[in-house]
Design a protein that fits this description.
The complex is a heterodimer of chains A (about 160) and B (about 120).
Chain A (H helix, E strand, L loop, with lengths): L3 E2 L1 H21 L6 H15 L4 H26 L1 E2 L6 H26 L8 H27 L7
Chain B lengths: L22 H4 L1 H10 L4 E3 H8 L3 H13 L3 E7 L8 E7 L1 H20 L3 E2 L1
Antiparallel strand pairs in B: 1-3, 2-3
The chains are: A mainly alpha (about 160), B alpha+beta (about 120).
Amino acid sequence: MESNIDPDEARSTLAFLDDDGARLAERVVTPWWYHPILAAIVAAIIISQALPGAWGITLLPLAIIAIPLLMLAYKKHSGVATTQPAGPRSKRLMLMLMAVVVLALVSTLVVKLTDSSPWWALIPAAIAAVATVLLGRRYDAVLRQELALPVSARR
Amino acid sequence: MSTSDGAPPHTPAHPDPAAEFHEVIHAPVRLRICGLLRQVDALEFSVIRDALELKDANLSKNLKVLSDADLVTVTKESSPDRGDARRLTWVALTADGHSALQSHLAALRAIAEGGTALSR
């Protein structure tokens, strides 16, 4: 048997999908502990670059292993697995945060290569940690806003 | 009324899909399931159920249809948080599912914007 989809039905169906996206956005709520723990991991990775000898070699893999564990905990907590930005604003925030972390890593490497005191690495580590919390929380808020919008309105 | 252009954040390799109606996806519940999944990497069963306000049996039945058509993957995972030995069920769109959904949405948009009815 054959039937037809008329324009009104098509528009109604597409609008339903947009409404569902808004409901999904309400579910994407990051627990309070996520960004502080992520900030601590980021700081540990940065500091590990400046630590001498076995300290750095030990700390770096531990911190790297902690990242997927944290993401797994978040995924199980929320029931949502998402690793990509939902629109241009969240993408910009993600790139900004990545840039801050890379700059902090480069700063720490300079500390190490110039044989300066490892304590100087605390400054870029602290900046990256604060940026992780602030930009990370902002990223989540923007991600929720973009998920709640029709895809066509996210540009 | 708002409309969706259907371009997902996770579009795999089909930025401009051809409009093509997909019989399995078009069923309202299945289209809404796929519509949710296109936004993320994966969703847990209960999140889909609650977001779409479906009964467990209804969602399970439709996921089976989508899975049999290779449009979604359904992965069960143990959960130490649960004392009743139930497992978490994760659902994700496959690459074929992404492509089929984008083509289907393109067909719907063509109808909605062009005002031409599609025969199915």
